[in-house]
C-alpha cells in the first residue's frame, strides 16, 4: 500500500506522520503548521514537534499504463483539461462572490459617508444656532426692554430725508424704459428656483447692493423665498442659483436686501426673522442674527432708507423695528387692532405704513413716535401697499378687487382701479412712473401718463396659479414675477 499525502493527494517524497495519524509531505505540513498551527484534516492543534519522519525505500514512480499509447495520452490530457476547467469555474465563482462582497462594502461605505456628511451639516447648523443665541444673549440687556428710536437716530433720519428730497428733484429718468416698450413685453424666460416637492415661490427682492436701480441692466441678482423654507440667491444673467440660504423650517413669506452691504433679511411662517450676511468671494451666506420677536407668522420685512434698521410685521397684530447691526428689537409697535399684511417705509424714511386685515392703512410717524389717523382704503382685507419713489403717492390693493391711489399731501384717494380678480401685490418702479399689480394669474402694468391718472399699459399672461410677488428691474428694464406654479418669470 502506497503512502499518500493528505494535502497533495500524491505519493510524498519525504513522508511524515502526524500526531493525529495522517501522512503528509514534510515541507507542505511544515508550511501549514507555521500558518495555522493545526492539523489540516482534523483541525486539532499541531506543532512541528508533533510530526515524525517515515523511513521508506526510494522508488521510481512508474509511468501510468494509460500513458504508453496515444489514446491513453489523449485521455490523460482530457482529464487534466476537465480538472483545469473545473478549477477555473470554481475560481470564477469565488471571484464573483468576492466582487459582490466588495460592491456591498462600497455601497455601505458610500451610505455611511452620506450619513456622516448629513450629521456634520446638522452639527454645524446647531453650532451656528447656538452661536447666534449666545451672541444675542451677550448683546441683550438684563432687563427685557426696548430702547426705542433715540434722538440721535431721529436726527439722522431727518437729515437723510432732507438729502433724499433734494436728490429726488435733481434726478433724471431719461434712461428708463418708455410705456410703448412696456406694451410689447412678453415672457422671455422662466426659472424654477425652488423645490418641486413643496411648490410655490412666495416673495422676491432684487439685490440692491450690486446694481444701480436707475440704470437699466440685465446683470442682476435676486433673492427669492419659497414654500420649501429656502431663500435662493439667483443670477439672472447666468440663469443659475449662486447660493441657497438654509435655516427656516417653514415657508419664507418675505425678503428684502440691503443697499450698502451684502445682507438679506427674510421672514417666515416659523415666526423668525433671519439676517443673512454674504461672502463676496464665495457667494455663500450665513445667518448672523436670528430675531424671535413675533409670536406668529412673519408677513413682511422692509429696510429703512438709512440702512441701519428694518421693520417687520406679523400675524400677531404687531409691528416692530429692529437694528441690523445687533439683531435687537429697537421698538415694538403693538396694540394694533388687526394683523398687518405688509409694512413699508416712506422713501424719505419719516413714516412707516402698514396694510391690515380690515382694509385700513395705518401710519406711524417715526419722529413723533405716534400713529396718524388710519386710512380706510378698502372694504375687505388690504393685502399690499407701495410708496412711489416721488414721495407723494401711495398705492394699496385689497380683496375688494380694487387698487387705490392716494395723494399723501392731501390724505385722499385720487383714483381707484377696478380689477376682475383679487390683487395680491403692488409695486412702483424707481421712477414712480409705472405701477405693477399682481393678481390671480396675470400681471398688469399701469403708467402715470399724467400726475393724477394711471392708465393700463400691459396685461401679461403666462402663470397658471396665483402670482405672489413682483418687482421691477433697474431702470424699469424688465419685470420679475413669482407664482405658486413654481416659476419665476421674466417679462421684457
Automatic annotation (TrEMBL):
Gene3D superfamilies: YVTN repeat-like/Quinoprotein amine dehydrogenase, Zinc/RING finger domain, C3HC4 (zinc finger). InterPro entries: Prp19 (IPR038959), Prp19_cc (IPR013915), RING-Ubox_PRP19 (IPR055340), Ubox_domain (IPR003613), WD40/YVTN_repeat-like_dom_sf (IPR015943), WD40_PAC1 (IPR020472), WD40_repeat_CS (IPR019775), WD40_repeat_dom_sf (IPR036322). One of its GO terms (cellular component) is nucleoplasm. One of its GO terms (molecular function) is ubiquitin protein ligase activity. One of its GO terms (biological process) is protein K63-linked ubiquitination. It catalyses: S-ubiquitinyl-[E2 ubiquitin-conjugating enzyme]-L-cysteine + [acceptor protein]-L-lysine = [E2 ubiquitin-conjugating enzyme]-L-cysteine + N(6)-ubiquitinyl-[acceptor protein]-L-lysine. Keywords: DNA damage, DNA repair, Ligase, mRNA processing, mRNA splicing, Nucleus, Repeat, Spliceosome, Transferase, Ubl conjugation pathway, WD repeat. Belongs to the WD repeat PRP19 family. Ubiquitin-protein ligase which is mainly involved pre-mRNA splicing and DNA repair. Required for pre-mRNA splicing as component of the spliceosome. This is Pre-mRNA-processing factor 19. It comes from Babesia microti (strain RI).
Amino acid at each position: 500500500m502506497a503512502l499518500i499525502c493528505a494535502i497533495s493527494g500524491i505519493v510524498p517524497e519525504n513522508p511524515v506522520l502526524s500526531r493525529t495519524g495522517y501522512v503528509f509531505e514534510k515541507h507542505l505540513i511544515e508550511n501549514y503548521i507555521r500558518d495555522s498551527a493545526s492539523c489540516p484534516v482534523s483541525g486539532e492543534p499541531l506543532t512541528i514537534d508533533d510530526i515524525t519522519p517515515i523511513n521508506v525505500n526510494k522508488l521510481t514512480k512508474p509511468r501510468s499504463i494509460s500513458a504508453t499509447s496515444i489514446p491513453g495520452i489523449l485521455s490523460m490530457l482530457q482529464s487534466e483539461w476537465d480538472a483545469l476547467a473545473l478549477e477555473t469555474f470554481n475560481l470564477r465563482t469565488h471571484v464573483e462572490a468576492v466582487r459582490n462582497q466588495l460592491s456591498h462594502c462600497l455601497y455601505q461605505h458610500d451610505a455611511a459617508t452620506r450619513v456622516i456628511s448629513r450629521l456634520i451639516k446638522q452639527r454645524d447648523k446647531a453650532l451656528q444656532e447656538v452661536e447666534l443665541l449666545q451672541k444675542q444673549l451677550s448683546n441683550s440687556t438684563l432687563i427685557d426692554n426696548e430702547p426705542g428710536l433715540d434722538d440721535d437716530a431721529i436726527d439722522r433720519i431727518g437729515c437723510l430725508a432732507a438729502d433724499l428730497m433734494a436728490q429726488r428733484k435733481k434726478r433724471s429718468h431719461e434712461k428708463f424704459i418708455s410705456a410703448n416698450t412696456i406694451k410689447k413685453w412678453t415672457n422671455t424666460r422662466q426659472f424654477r428656483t425652488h423645490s418641486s416637492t413643496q411648490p410655490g415661490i412666495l416673495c422676491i427682492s432684487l439685490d440692491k447692493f450690486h446694481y444701480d436701480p436707475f440704470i437699466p441692466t440685465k446683470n442682476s441678482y435676486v433673492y427669492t423665498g419659497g414654500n420649501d423654507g429656502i431663500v435662493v440667491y439667483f443670477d439672472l444673467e447666468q440663469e443659475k442659483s449662486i447660493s441657497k440660504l438654509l435655516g427656516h423650517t417653514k415657508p419664507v413669506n418675505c425678503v428684502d436686501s440691503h443697499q450698502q452691504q451684502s445682507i438679506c433679511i427674510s421672514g417666515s411662517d416659523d415666526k423668525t426673522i433671519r439676517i443673512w450676511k454674504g461672502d463676496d468671494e464665495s457667494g455663500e451666506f450665513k445667518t448672523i442674527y436670528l430675531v424671535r420677536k413675533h409670536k406668529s407668522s412673519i408677513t413682511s420685512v422692509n429696510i429703512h432708507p438709512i440702512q441701519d434698521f428694518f421693520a417687520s410685521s406679523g400675524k400677531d397684530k404687531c409691528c416692530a423695528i429692529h437694528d441690523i447691526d445687533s439683531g435687537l428689537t429697537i421698538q415694538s409697535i403693538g396694540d394694533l387692532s388687526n394683523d398687518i399684511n405688509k409694512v413699508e417705509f416712506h422713501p424719505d424714511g419719516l413714516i412707516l405704513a402698514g396694510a391690515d386685515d380690515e382694509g385700513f392703512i395705518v401710519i406711524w410717524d417715526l419722529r413723533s413716535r405716534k400713529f396718524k389717523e388710519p386710512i380706510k382704503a378698502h372694504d375687505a382685507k388690504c393685502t399690499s401697499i407701495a410708496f412711489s419713489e416721488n414721495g407723494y403717492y401711495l398705492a394699496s390693493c385689497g380683496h375688494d378687487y380694487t387698487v387705490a391711489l392716494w395723494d399723501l399731501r392731501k390724505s385722499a384717494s385720487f383714483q381707484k382701479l377696478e380689477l376682475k380678480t383679487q390683487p395680491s401685490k403692488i409695486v412702483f418702479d424707481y421712477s414712480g412712473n409705472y405701477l405693477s399689480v399682481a393678481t390671480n394669474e396675470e400681471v398688469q402694468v399701469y403708467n402715470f401718463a399724467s400726475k393724477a391718472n394711471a392708465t393700463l399699459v400691459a396685461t401679461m399672461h403666462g402663470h397658471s396659479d396665483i402670482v405672489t410677488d413682483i418687482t421691477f428691474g433697474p431702470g424699469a428694464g424688465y419685470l420679475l414675477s413669482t407664482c405658486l406654479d413654481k416659476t419665476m418669470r421674466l417679462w421684457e
